[in-house]
Amino acid sequence: MRVLAARVVIVVALLVVWELAARAWNPLLAVPPSVVPPALIDLLMLRSYPDLPRHLLVTVREIAVAYALAVAAGLGCGFALGLYRTLGRVYAPILAALYAVPAVVWYPSLMLFFGLDSASKIAFGFLLGFFPITLAVLAGIRQVSGGLLTVARAFGAGPVTTFRLVMVPSMLFTLVGGLRAGLALTVIGVIVGEVLGSKAGVGALINHAYGLLRTTDYVALVLVTLALVVTSDALASVVERRARRWAE
Amino acid sequence: MTVPSSTLILVEDVSKRYLTSSGPVSALDDVSLRVDAGEFCTLIGPSGCGKSTLLGMIGGLVTPDRGRILIDDRPVSGPDPRRVAPVFQDAGLFPWRTTVENVEFGLELQGVSRERRRQVATELLGPLGLSAFAAKYPRELSGGMRQRVAIGRALALDTKILLMDEPFGALDEQTRVLMGEWLLDIWRRTRKTVIFVTHSLHEALALSTRVVVMTARPGRIKSILPLSLPYPREMESPELVTLRAKLWGEIREESLRAMGEQARTAS
Amino acid sequence: MPSPAWSSAGRGGGRNDGAARAQRRLVKRARIVGLQLVSILVALVAWEVAARGGWVDPLFVPAPSAVAAAFGRIGAAALRALGDTLVKAGIAYGIAVVLGVGAGLALGSARRLRDVLNPFVIGVYGIPKILVLPWIVLLLGFGAAPAIVYGTIQAFFPILLIVMGSVRDVDATLLTVARSYGARPWQLYWKVILPAIVPAVLAGMRLGIVFCLLGVLIVEMFAGVRGMGYVMGSLANGFRAAELFAVTGLVSAASIAIVLTLDVLNDRLAHWRG
C-alpha cells in the first residue's frame, strides 16, 4: 500500500513540476501535461488528423506482414541451424556477428531498394524481428535436456516423434519468449522506418506533426502509438499464456 | 548456577520461530547445550530439526527469539570472527579469487597486512594438500578441493571454535570418508572446538566426542551420546556397531516423524 | 603429514592425450572457418554474376566490383563521417555507462527504492525511444547534442537493467559467508558485490555500445548534417547504390570490430568465470 502511495506521489509530483516548468520556459516546445488531454481528444475525434484510421491501418498491416515473415524465416532458419549441427556451426556465428551491427544501418539500403512505401518498413520490421526469433530457437534447442532425448530414444521414438513430444515442449518457453521479443522488435522496426521517412503510417504522421511544430498533436500521436505498442505486447502475452497452458 | 570453567559454549533455553507462508513454524524449542573446549560435538537429526538454525545462532547469524548463547561467558550478538569460524555445505568460495586469496579472505576483512595474510594462507596450503593449486580458481577445483579451501579459510582465522554445517554433504561417499579422516587429523593437531552438523551416522560416529541427537520439528535435544573411543575409530568394532544401532534407533524414530510431517504438509 | 594421495588428482592436469585433443579441436575450427569463408566467397561470386548478367537491376543492386570501386572513391570521406559518428557514440557511451552502472547499483541494492521505481523503469524501457526523437531534435537542434543524448538514452536502459539484475542475483551464500566472517556493509559491497557483478557489467557494456551506435545513427539519419547516418541517408536519396553498399559495409565492419574487441576484453577481465 505504501509502495502504491509512493508511486502515485512520484507521478503527481512529476506532472506538477513539468506543468510549471514547461509553462515558465516554453509551452510550445516543452508541452505541459495540461495541453495533452484536449489534443488527444482532438486526435481521437479525427479533428487534427482526419485520416488517422487509414494511417493506423497501414502501420498495423505493415507490422502484421513483417511479423509473419519474421516468424516464418526465424523459425525456419532457427530450426535448420539448430537441428543440422554442421549447418549451425558454420552459419550461426555469422548470424551472431550480424547481430552485433546496429540494425538501422540496413535501412538506407532498404529505402533505396523499396522506396518510401510500406515495403521498406515491412522489410525493416522483418529484419529486426527475425534475429530474436532465430536466436530463441537456437537457444531453445540447445537447452533441451540430453537426458530427455536419451529417454525418448530408449523408448524407441523416431525423430519426428521425438521432435513433437520432447523438443517442442522443452523449448516452448524459450521459443514463445523469442516470438514475443520478435513482435516487440518488429513493431519498433516498422515505427522507426516510418518516422525516418514514409508517406503513410503513424510514424509518418508523427514526422509531419514534428515538421510543422504541432507539438501537442505530436504528443497525442505518440500516445496513440504507445497504445498500439502496448496492445500488441498485451496480445502477445495473452497468446503466450495460452500456449503455456496448452503445453502443460 | 556455576558453570564448569572448561565450558566454552553455553546455549541456554534457546527458541526460534520462523514465519512461513503456511503459518509460523517452530524451528527450535527450548534447546540447551553445553560444549566444552576441545570437543568435537556433532549435531545430527532429520531434516528440519533445527540443527543448522542452532549452528547459525552460535555463529551469530541468527538471533534466538528466546534464550541466549554465551561463548567464553560473553553473549553472542553477531558474527564473531575472532572466536568462531564457519564452514558451509556450499563451499561458498568467491569465484573471482584464487585459492590462496580465498583462504586469506577472513584475515583480509580484519585488516591484516597483505604480506602477513599471504604468508598465513600459503603456509596453510601445505596441510590442506593444496600447495600446487594456490593460483587456481574455484571452477578449476573439484568439490572436495573446494571444501578444503573453505575449511582452510576458516582455519586461517585461528579461532577457538570451528562451526561446520554439513561440509561434506555435497561430496561423494569415498571423498566424504577421506575428508573426514583428514579433518580429524587437523582437529587433533589444532585442538579446536568443533561443532559439526551432519546427516551421516558414519561421520557422527567416526569423528565425534559427543553426538547430540535432535528431534524432528520443533527441534529439541532428544539425547546426547558421549563417545570416548580412541581415534582413529574402528568402525567395525563391537562397541561401535552397538553404538551405531543405538544411534540409528534414536534417529530413525525422528526421521519417520519428520517424513510424516512432510507428507502432511505436501498434501 | 604427507598430503593424501588423492589430493594431487586435480582438474585439468596430467592427461596425456590433451595435446591430441587440442589439435583435433583446431582442425575442427579451421574446417568451420573454411566453410564460412567459402560460403561468403560463393555468395559474392553469385552476386557478381547476377549483377553482370543483368538478373538484378544494377541501379538497386550493384555488383561487388562496383561497390569496391565506389569504396575507393569515397573512402576518405566515409572514414571521416565514420569518425564523426564514433566520437558522438563514444561520448554517449561514456555517459550511459556511468549513469547506467550507477543507477543499476543503486536500484539493485536498495530494495525499497527498487520496489517503488520498478514499474516506472520497465514502463519507460518499453517505450520505443524513436517516439521521443523528434521532440529531442526540436529541443536540441541539429548538431551533435541530440545524437549524444539519444545515444545515451538508448544505451542507458539495457545497462541499467542488466546491472540491477546482477546486483539482485548475487549469490546469497557468498553474502552470508562474508557476513559470517565479520564483513561490514561497505566490505560486502567492495569485496563481494562489486567483484561478483563484473561479468554482468561487462555484458551490459558490450550491449550498450551497439545501442549507442544505433541511437547516434538514427539521429543522424533523421535530422543530421554530418556523420555516417547522414551520409547513408543522402546516398540512399541520391540512388547511389554502390556507394551506399560500400559505406554500409564499412559501418558494419566497424561495429563488428568494436564488439569483438569488447568480447576479448570481457574474456580477459572475467576469465575466472569459466
Largest interface summary: A-C, 47 and 48 residues
- First-to-last CA distance of chain C: 33 Å
Q: How much helix, percentage-wise, in residues of chain B?
A: 25-40%
In this structure, how is the largest beta sheet of chain B organized? 6 strands, mixed
CATH superfamily of the domain at 1-76 and 165-173 and 195-267 in chain B, please? P-loop containing nucleotide triphosphate hydrolases
Can you give me a brief rundown of this structure?
Chain A has 248 residues and is mainly α. Chain A has helices at residues 2-25, 27-30, 36-44, 52-83, 85-99, 107-114, 118-142, 146-154, 159-196, 202-211, 215-247.
3D structure, described in words:
The complex is a heterotrimer of chains A (248), B (267) and C (274). With 248 residues, chain A is mainly α. Chain A has helices spanning 2-25, 27-30, 36-44, 52-83, 85-99, 107-114, 118-142, 146-154, 159-196, 202-211, 215-247. Chain A has 2 domains: 1-30; 35-247, MetI-like fold (Orthogonal Bundle), CATH 1.10.3720. Chain A has 11 helices and no strands. In chain A, helix 9 (159-196) packs parallel to helix 10 and helix 10 (202-211) runs antiparallel to helix 11 (215-247). The longest helix of chain A is centred in the last third of the chain and has 38 residues, at 159-196. Chain A starts with a helix and ends with a helix. The relative contact order of chain A is 0.13. Chain B contains 8 helices and 10 strands. Chain B has helices at 51-58, 99-103, 105-109, 114-128, 143-156, 173-190, 201-207, 238-266; strands at residues 7-20, 23-36, 40-44, 66-71, 74-75, 84-87, 161-165, 193-198, 210-214, 221-226. Chain B has a 6-stranded mixed sheet, with helices on both faces. In chain B, strands 2-1-4-5 form a 4-stranded antiparallel sheet, covered by helices on one side. Chain B has a domain at 1-76 and 165-173 and 195-267: Rossmann fold (3-Layer(aba) Sandwich). Helix content of chain B is 38%, strand content 25%. With 267 residues, chain B is of the alpha/beta class. In chain B, helix 6 (173-190) runs parallel beside helix 7 (201-207). With 274 residues, chain C is mainly alpha-helical. Chain C has 2 domains: 19-56; 60-273, Orthogonal Bundle (MetI-like fold), CATH 1.10.3720. In chain C, 79% of the residues lie in helices and 0% in strands. Chain C has helices spanning 18-52, 64-109, 111-126, 133-140, 145-168, 172-180, 185-223, 228-237, 241-269. In chain C, helix 2 (64-109) packs antiparallel against helix 3, helix 2 packs antiparallel against helix 7 (185-223) and helix 7 packs antiparallel against helix 9. The longest helix of chain C has 46 residues, at 64-109. Chains in contact: A-C, B-C.
